[in-house]
Design brief:
This protein is α+β, with helices and mostly antiparallel strands. Helix content is about 25%, strand content about 30%. The strands form eight sheets. Strands 3, 7, 8, 9, 10, 11, 12, 21 and 24 form a nine-stranded mixed sheet that branches. The chain binds one RNA strand of 77 nucleotides through helix 4, helix 13 and helix 14.
Length: about 575
Amino acid sequence: MRWSQTLIPTLKETPAEAEILSHKLLLRAGLVRKLTGGLYTFLPLGVRVLRKVEQIVREEMDRSGALEVLLPTLQPPEIWQQSGRYEAIGDGLYKLRDRAKKEWVMSPTAEEVITTLAAGEINSYRQLPATFYQISVKFRDEIRPRFGLMRAKEFIMKDAYSFDATEEAAMSSYRKMYDAYQRIFNRCGLKNFPVEADTGVIGGNLSHEFMVPAETGENEIVFCEACGYAANLEKATSGIPKTAAREVGPTPEKFATPGVVTIEALTKAPHSVPANRQIKTLVFIADSKPVLILVRGDDQLNEAKLASVLGTTVFRPAETPEIFDALGAHPGSLGAVGVTKFPVFADERLRGANGMTTGANEDGFHFNKVSLERDIPGARWADLRTVGAGEPCAKCAKPLKIQRGIEVGHVFMIGSKKYSEKLNAYYLAEDGTRKPCVMGCYGIGITRTLQSIIEQSNDKDGIVWPLTVAPYQVCITPLGVASGSAVMQLAEKIYAELQARGVDVILDDRDERPGVKFKDADLVGFPIRLGIGEKSLAKGEVELKRRGGTLTPVLAAAAVAKVCECLAAGGAN
RNA sequence: CGGAGCGUAGCUCAGCCUGGUAGAGCACUUGCUUUGGGAGCAAGACGUCGCAGGUUCGAAUCCUGUCGCUCCGACCA
């Protein structure tokens, strides 16, 4: 490609809309332009990178045995109602009506459609296992799009779905995808690592997210450097000790605590109850009914874990009047002692604890000497607390660390209940029985991955593309473009030869000053730049410059060979 | 949806408080000079000051409404 014949609108100044570095560089390097909030136009250079990432994904999906399909984006709401996700996702779904006033859904993902396909086409165990994938535009009604392509209303995603006869076979399909994901992100030049992920309302224990470490990431990752444990904060556990038991009296004792409505206040004189001897009582409305959640006073509830325990995402903190109706007291004086009307869930860390202090469900009073098992016998135990940095790893007891990351991929074992049974994807097993397919689903945010690469690979001058996804691998920069000049003749010759060898090459044939060309090439981030100028050409040389590396003079006659050598070495030399 | 901020040239922004003929830099067009890290000079083109009302002799500026964008929070199957 000749620079003058394409559109690469680089910007010297950063548009005000961009907040994070990768977003600024996407705009400045002329890869994308914003149409409106959460919607972006891909320019020629952006499309090239997109296609390269897609191609890597495609190759690794194919290699893993997955079959490429293309599913409709416009989908009937009926199948969403059948799976129960019409309600579960609710406002996150883009919906529209046609001229006959019939409603349609814009696909945010395609479990329902693929399961419908499987229901029709897969009849026998002989057809299993089967994994399908597609790369397509997806839609989500994001409450707040942000960070450019990171969280957009419309984005490109690779989604894949596996169908198996048994749990064991499904595990194997899951593993294949997991392995393919590692190959994909490595090929994209991304530092990344899989972490155990929350499985939310679906349950089960098998889900991993592929994270790219970045301060701008929206996820928090808990990890152990010693043993390799890594999990999303929503899922992470630690080996933190349970609450110590102590000698206590036979019954809780009520005591007056006028005006004390926070954990903090109760830690102070005259009560002086440390936070770790208090029970924090939270009230949520789940499926329209109150539930009580107990965590230790110095712990934080993890709502993702709560969703998993409640088996629903439809819950919210109760409003003060609802709390008063339910318990007869206001927040700050709440407790679960004697509460039998509502379900009570208590964090594992409180198991066996006694001598604890909690609200008495009477404004201005608390109980002390509370023993969890004795005084709140109806409590169901669950892991509900949020892990903190520095807590001991559950596996090896070394201190855990917390780091932010960008989720670029997610693999998920679903099983058969969520979609197969509801949408009738059954097959006939070898023994003649009818069984639901065991499903897995697997996503990669293509556009998000693209931006993650930029977020991770840049310097003060601009993007530093890994060779595998660079829009062009080589940029030829003639300093002076007078046609017929020795410089331009050589540039044209090398350009033609590299093209003949199948190298992705762009010739900067613009009549611009050298400074402009250098700055643009650096900003866009081509891995290899070949500078051709009168000064060096007088010595029979051209200049080979690796992005972010050193400048090496090479003989003009050897330039093509050197570039190819450099490419073969992965751009590393 | 709650909180905060911003809408003025393609981009970055000044002007608004204190009402009086629409500004700068970059980008763009033309010419000359320049030519190894975002050149200089000269000339030029580019605006319903987000939109709609209102106040006023007069509104980018003050008031009301509205739309949009950005940030923080809630949300993220």
